[in-house]
Specification:
The complex is a heterodimer of chains A (513) and B (448). Chain A has 513 residues and is an alpha+beta fold. Chain A contains 11 helices and 26 strands. Chain A has 2 domains: 21-266, PmbA/TldD superfamily (PmbA/TldD fold), CATH 3.30.2290; 273-510, no CATH class. In chain A, the strands form 4 sheets. In chain A, strands 8, 9, 16, 17, 18, 19, 20, 21, 22, 25 and 26 form an 11-stranded mixed β-sheet that branches. In chain A, a hairpin with a 2-residue loop joins strand 6 and strand 7 (230-240). Chain A is globular, with a radius of gyration of 24 Å. Among the domains of chain B are: 116-153 and 173-218, PmbA/TldD fold (2-Layer Sandwich), CATH 3.30.2290; 222-448, no CATH class. Chain B has 9 helices and 19 strands. Chain B has helices spanning 3-16, 72-88, 121-137, 206-218, 241-250, 253-257, 318-324, 357-362, 412-417, and strands spanning 21-37, 40-58, 61-67, 142-161, 166-182, 189-197, 229-235, 278-280, 303-307, 310-311, 332-333, 342-343, 348-350, 366-374, 384-395, 398-411, 419-422, 432-433, 437-445. Classes of the chains: A alpha+beta (513), B alpha+beta (448). Strand 2 (88-106) of chain A pairs parallel with strand 3 (61-67) of chain B.
């Protein structure tokens, strides 16, 4: 059942085949939205009537109550997935979402309406409803729409939507075979491939007109092991804004071996000790920590409303001097990369913390305007059913100078986190908690016993101050779907090897003190 | 548009194109959401959404698709593609539409409030403004509003299958709430409260909701971690949701079949203290967690999952039940039209005991009263339990000081057996309802 109000809570990688602006200007819009689909082709597309003149008309209707800004967001999304478990292809599935969202802004007020009925009458009504929020004197008209050229950060040659499920199934079978062969104690294997193919048009009353074709794909293998009643699980995946050319049976094989390795490594895991410990985070797969525990507190909506722990900290030291943090939507092929955000602003690399000093926040257009600054290209939305809010893209701790081996050697007794799982944070207090699917004890500078049931917890501002060593080995990798205000959005993150002097570990084992 | 006709048409067309069985599920919703901050309307969102999910079985092979495009031409293509997708799947002998057998008639659970669409926008705005105003005035340490909100929805659900099931349900929901921030600078705490009902006139009044939000925020100020220790722990009724969710994961029927839950071998055996009785009851009139039929179209009923500590049943949908050789499935939930139904509880109620929460706390010399959990923390395969927690420290039977930044750790199998008392404070507010309860001992991880 839907709940309308929940107290603040957050839980908890292509060349696109689109030509430049002139083609967009002359081609009927339905062509922008026709995928190279497996037969039969989509033979009709109701978005075909939405040309620039129509969009401009809708914008002007949106402004008729005196709004300052109007925007139309058109979306057509196809999602495909195919999964294998228990030695069988479970199912292949496909979904189509399309619709139009219209936003009108006046001052701090936003009116939003959306429709999946694309008749002109219904869209005009949608624009009118969105405009009701405004009560201004001046009746503006939309500026003429002009295409914007945008760069391309996706690594897509072959759209995965154009690949028949039978071909994708071959990768799944390979992953299944290799993971099961990895060790006879592996008793369950799951393999899945999924892709999201989204075409968007953004037009606003300032004259912006942008189209983008976003592809996100992922291949994942999970393996469970069982021995003498003890169980463990490992998983591995590859994904990003990547075309199908990035996946083959060898990819499946590598992922299967990695999933198998983790499952077997964690099989003899012991209960994690509860208490405060120094922690070493492995490169690459622990960036979720910086996304959740720090990044959310540096989003511009919270900064404007003064509801995050860093809202008044710009220009101040909020981290130890060796800490620099970036959010960068331009990393080629990364899961969180975008050519433009969902307001049509080109993405960019934003430094949030430089040598320990807070240097800025992530903004969408509305929050930027109210704060007398510019959008940083972080206005993102889940779909046409949502209005944009400031969101991260690819968030990472920047490289430092400490030797990864020295980092490990410096810990007498602590915890080694090979990867961080899911987590959640309150951006107001900065308090977080994370699961750890793969972690170990560190004893006398060496990785020893595997640990289960580790929970990392603490608060973001404290951890930033407690980062005492950072390696040079930055990797931006993987990622997932971040939830905020009921909107899910693909993101990625990264980090070099690093040490946090103390973090609270939740676990079942209580040390006698 | 007559969506039942569309659903029937899609099922018939799929059969004509050669599938053995087909099921169409349609949702049609109207939503309104309003958000107020610092006395002004910040956002108003209005929408209508609809979509269809189609499940087909051909030679025991499954195909599934969804679309929000219900125009005639597109639907033809949609049906053909769904059938094509079924060709890539492997046949499974248990695949197919559910067999419900003899069923009770669909009853009217009074889930529709026709007056909701007639509430004036100004009235909704006034409620959202009022709840914010009172919450901000609750205590001078409350410094900011995060937001207040009001929302309502009308939805229609249709399920039609080729075995003759054709069901529709109309329901409404309405709610409002507020979230505020207390403190400044290095210490800010957030808290909020809300009321969510089927009928507008069942909503709690704005003042009560606002004051509860204020109280829940203020009482957290000054929270700090404690030293790592083992103590009795009381879970507050409103913080127990995440705890029971962890148990429900472990009660998944398919996991029991695959032997991947720590409760695999415990059917009809004790898994919890005899004070623990857990039921799933989606048939309470006007309740927010009620529904006349489940995600597969099955007429809902009350199921007892755990009775006096004895595990009575695992949770199956029709497919996982057939696979495991279980005659009667429990319930299946559908999370919108974009996916098939899967085994789930719908409205969980943990039976109340006969001691007051105050008495339970008074009986504890030193302990932890948990009012917030971060994460679910249960590993269903091992029963390992580890979550972030906040609340209050108990000393000599009294609340001593607020606590945050600690973890709880243990194993579900032991924790369930160590439930020593269950309070009488059950409040049926949501879809997972539990009274407060006390666990005799749990590891609390904090400072060293």
């Amino acid at each position: 059942m839907k709940k309308y109000f929940q107290p603040i809570k957050r839980r908890e990688f292509i060349k696109k085949g689109m030509a430049g602006g002139t083609v967009i200007a002359t081609a009927p819009l339905w062509k922008l939205f026709s995928y190279s689909l497996p037969a039969p082709d989509i033979n009709s597309n109701p978005l075909s009537d939405l040309d620039k003149d129509t969009l401009k008309k809708l914008l002007t209707i949106g402004l008729q109550n005196g709004g300052e800004f109007a925007e139309v967001y058109v979306e057509y999304t196809v999602q495909n997935s195919i999964g294998l478990d228990e030695n069988k292809i479970r199912a292949a599935s496909r979904g189509v979402d399309m619709g139009v969202g219209i936003r009108v802004v006046q001052g701090e007020k936003t009116g939003y309406a959306h429709s999946d009925d694309l008749s002109l009458e219904k869209l005009k009504e949608t624009a009118r409803v969105a405009g009701l929020i405004a009560s201004g004197e001046i009746k503006r008209e939309s500026a003429a729409l002009k295409e914007k050229d945008i760069p391309d950060y996706y690594l897509v040659k072959t759209s995965p939507d154009g690949i028949i499920p039978q071909d994708k199934a071959k990768l799944l079978w390979k992953g299944n075979e290799v993971a099961r062969a990895y060790d006879k104690r592996i008793n369950q294997v799951g393999v899945g491939f999924s892709d999201i193919n989204k075409k968007i048009i953004i037009a606003n009353s300032e004259g912006v007109f942008v189209t983008d074709h976003q592809t996100i794909s992922r291949l994942m293998v999970s393996a469970s092991a069982l021995e003498n009643g003890k169980r463990s699980r490992g998983y591995a995946y590859k994904g990003g804004t990547l075309g199908y050319e990035h996946y083959d049976v060898q990819t499946a094989e590598e992922l299967a071996k990695e999933a198998g390795r983790i499952a077997m490594a964690m099989l003899p895991a012991e209960d994690a000790p509860a208490g405060e410990y120094p922690v070493v985070l492995a490169k690459g797969d622990c960036g979720t920590f910086f996304h959740e525990a720090i990044g959310h507190s540096l989003e511009g909506d919270g900064a404007r409303r003064k509801t995050t722990c860093f809202w008044d900290k710009k220009g101040e030291a909020i981290a130890s001097e060796i800490v620099s943090l970036a959010d960068d939507g331009t990393v080629p092929g990364a899961r969180g990369s975008i050519n433009v955000d969902d307001e049509g602003t080109p993405s960019q690399k934003n430094i949030l913390i430089q040598d320990g000093t807070c240097t800025g926040f992530l903004y969408d257009k509305l929050n930027a305007k109210l704060m007398n600054t510019k959008s940083t290209g972080n206005g993102r939305r889940e779909s046409y059913q949502h209005y944009p809010i400031p969101r991260m893209t690819n968030t990472y701790l920047m490289a430092g100078k400490d030797d990864p081996e020295d980092i490990l050697k410096s810990v007498k007794r602590g915890i080694y986190i090979a990867r961080i799982g899911g987590g959640n944070v309150s951006p107001t207090t900065g308090r977080f908690v994370f699961q750890v699917p793969e972690g170990y004890m560190i004893e006398d500078g060496k990785i020893t016993t595997p640990l289960k049931g580790i929970q990392l917890m603490g608060n973001g501002p404290d951890v930033l101050m407690n980062i005492t060593m950072v390696g040079p080995d930055l990797e931006i990798w993987g990622g997932g779907t971040c939830g905020k205000s009921g909107q899910g959005k693909p993101v990625s993150d990264g980090n070099p090897t690093l040490k946090v002097a103390k973090v609270t570990i939740g676990g079942a084992k209580i040390q006698s003190s | 548009m007559n969506y039942q006709k569309i659903a029937e048409h899609v099922v018939q067309e799929a059969l004509k194109l050669g599938v053995d069985e087909a099921e169409a599920y349609i949702e049609n919703n109207r939503d309104f959401d309003l958000r107020v901050r610092n006395g002004d309307v910040e956002t108003v969102k209005q929408s209508t959404t609809k979509g269809i999910g189609l499940t087909v079985y051909k030679d025991k092979k499954l195909g599934f698709s969804y679309t929000s495009d219900l125009t005639d031409e597109s639907l033809d293509d949609f049906i053909k593609r769904t059938i094509q997708l079924s060709e890539v799947a492997d046949p499974k002998p248990w695949n197919g539409l559910p067999d419900f057998g003899e069923e009770a008639k669909q009853t009217d659970l009074d889930l529709w409030d026709g007056s909701i669409s007639e509430i004036e926008s100004n009235k909704k705005i006034e409620i959202a403004k009022e709840v914010e105003r009172i919450a901000l005035a609750y205590d001078k340490r409350i410094t900011k509003s995060y937001a207040s909100s009001f929302g309502d929805s009308e939805s229609e659900t249709i399920i039609v299958n080729s075995k003759g099931i054709s069901r529709t349900c109309q329901e409404t929901a309405v709610g409002f709430g507020v979230s505020v921030i207390a403190g400044e600078g290095n210490e800010m705490q957030t808290g909020g409260w809300s009321s969510n009902k089927r009928h507008f006139r069942d909503l709690e009044n704005a003042e009560d909701v606002a004051k509860e939000a204020g109280k829940r925020t203020i009482e957290k100020l000054g929270a700090k971690p404690v030293k790592t220790t083992k103590v009795p722990v009381v879970f507050d009724r409103y913080a127990t949701g995440a705890f029971w969710y962890g148990l429900l994961f472990a009660l998944d029927g398919d996991s029991a079949y695959k032997k991947t839950t720590f409760l695999t071998d415990f059917l009809n055996k004790p898994i919890a203290s005899e004070l623990v009785t857990v039921i799933d009851n989606p048939t309470l009139p006007r309740h927010i967690g009620s529904t006349p039929f489940d995600g597969e179209g099955k007429i809902t009923r009350k199921n007892t999952l755990i009775e006096n500590g004895i595990l009575q049943m695992f949770i199956y949908d029709s497919i996982t039940a057939r696979k495991a050789g279980i005659k009667v499935s429990t319930m299946a939930r559908r999370r919108g039209y974009k996916g098939p139904a899967s085994a789930s509880t719908l409205n969980v109620i943990v039976q109340k005991g006969n001691t007051s929460r105050e008495k339970i706390i008074q009986g504890i010399n030193e302990g932890f009263y948990v009012t917030g959990l971060r994460g679910i923390g249960t590993d269903a395969s091992t029963g390992n339990y580890s979550v972030g927690a906040s609340g209050f420290w108990i000393k000599n039977g009294e609340i001593a000081f607020p606590v945050d930044g600690v973890t709880l750790g243990g194993n579900m199998a032991e924790i369930l057996k160590n439930i020593e008392s269950v309070a009488d404070d059950l409040d049926l507010r949501g879809t997972l309802n539990s009274p407060s309860f006390k666990v005799s001992e749990l590891a609390v991880g904090g400072k060293q």
